[in-house]
Amino acid sequence: MSTPLDILVSVFGYHAFRSQQAAIIDHVVGGGDALVIMPTGGGKSLCYQVPALVRGGVGVVVSPLIALMDDQVAALRELGVAAAALHSGLPAGEAAAIERELLAGRLKVVYMAPERLVGERTLELLSRVPLALIAIDEAHCVSQWGHDFRPEYLGLGVLGERFPGVPRLALTATADGPTQRDIVSRLRLADAALFTASFDRPNIRYHIRQGEGLREQLLAFLDAHHRTDSGIVYCPTRRRVEETAEWLARHGRPSLIYHAGLPADTRTANQRRFLREDGLTMVATVAFGMGIDKPDVRFVAHLGLPKNIEGYYQETGRAGRDGLPANAWLGYSLADVVGTRQLLAASDAPEERRRVEQAKFSALLGLAESTGCRRQALLAYFGEQLPAPCGNCDNCLDPPATFDATEAAQLALSCVYRTGQRFGVGYLIEVLRGGDDPRIASLGHDRLALFGRGQERSAAQWRSLFRQLAARGLVSVDIDGHGGLRLTDAARPVLRGEQRLHLREENGTRERRRRKGGATPVLASAEQALFEALRAERRRLADAHGVPAYVIFHDATLAQMAAERPRTLAELAQINGVGAAKLERYGAEFLAVIARAE
Ligand code: ADP
Ligand code: ZN
């Protein structure tokens, strides 16, 4: 029998397991159940693919999305592994053929939609073949607490009973306690060993920007660091998705869109193109992304605020799954803070739930406004301690200036109070800076002692200050839609002078200084040309075989080829990601490209 390491090297072409992979695989090969919690891009697939190949019989993998099963199957077939997917999208004849293969013991891995698996016909079919294991991917879909609840997942509870002695794994990137408990009880995994990997994604560089003109800032960032890369831009609404995509395309970025309001076939087509082609930007709502396992997404940007840190981390986690440097970029303005607060307040969820959602949003704002290491804050939220600042986030690389904002904040808060706690930020700034808004005179606000007392700060600086007061919960935003500010209890100690406030300085030079700050490509320019030539060869082969480019080789593998320039098949086999099947299938082609570059 092959060992897991043999399989890793010969089939997958990798040299070593990552973090918990070896322990999980040993446990499952030994027949144990497991609950695996690993961040997106952590390497969950190998945790069931390798044991499926080591143990006798077929590995059954439950996956929620049809389109992605097909790509997983294509990837396994490229590795020389007999794999198939059974789901409702198949023509009847094809499903029957796969079932025959399964019964004949010719398949090593079979992917199934949950509703298909728990149908009595399929259960009966599976009872007639030896099973290596049952893996339930995206297992948080079984939990009503999660954001991706799928009722079909509830039926999976029967599997332990129906297939006693077959090891079962549940895998997810969602870590919180209630979800974990739901997974264990609904999937009846009480005896499963729990494996949690670190949530750190060290190759992702986090950047969070505040202020105005964010779209332009984002474009400048992408032009500086990601000219030809694939990436995702998340927007909070469908309208912003469409506007942003159009705007990016006009500025020379080939962009696709994805949101729940599009016809299903448009969504599928766009997702497919994004997965298969290089260098596209997907502009989307959060409806896009679950299970997207494209390894070479080089950036994930947010225009506007996510609702909580879980969502933000899951979305940014789609960047850099191949382990190469990647950027997460978030930009938001005061209007985004106000908008999301209003949205959450106006939801018709029960009171308790709304309170939790507001608290989670506050935690996200805390991260966004923080002046310390982003990674430390993120990991702390998931209960992990990073002992030192990471050195790979915006605040570590370029510490933001702060100032004692106590007096300015008192002035701003008084202005809210003295004008009756009903005006939005635009008007308040007019009053503070002594502007000529006609309402000021008619309401007598020009007779307030604080009228015009804030002239030494620009409107942008006041805007930044109000944003930070709102983010820290010193003012709340009216939910009637006019964006009027009110003081909260938290404002009192500041107004009374019992608490000093240190806030981020808005100075506008920051973005210009920082354009150099992105995670940079890994290759020197001499290697870059060869890398591009290898990519072109990959494109050609992918088109010829009808598979996504990354299924042939990952960027990381091509980058290593470009750097090391192997001359023989034996040398090529040493490159990470070159397994036996791919060596035989594509080795000669890629060696030829390298030889031509000599
Ligand atoms: P997840 O499902 O946890 O989000 P994947 O299983 O898709 O992550 O793995 C992420 C990427 O890392 C994939 O491209 C995979 O091929 C790669 N990978 C996983 N394990 C290893 C390893 N031990 N060595 C090298 N690459 C790995
Ligand atoms: Zn940091």
Protein architecture, described:
The protein has 598 residues and is of the alpha/beta class. It has four domains: 4-196, Rossmann fold (3-Layer(aba) Sandwich); 204-393, P-loop containing nucleotide triphosphate hydrolases (Rossmann fold, 3-Layer(aba) Sandwich), CATH 3.40.50; 402-506, Orthogonal Bundle (Arc Repressor Mutant, subunit A), CATH 1.10.10.10; 525-596, DNA polymerase, domain 1, CATH 1.10.150. It has 28 helices and 17 strands. The chain has a seven-stranded parallel beta sheet, with helices on both faces. It has a six-stranded parallel beta sheet with strand order 8-13-12-9-11-10, with helices on both faces. Strand 3, helix 5 and strand 4 form a beta-alpha-beta unit. Helix 14 (334-346) packs parallel to helix 21 (459-471) and helix 18 crosses helix 19. It starts with a helix and ends with a helix. Mean pLDDT is 90; it is low at 509-516.
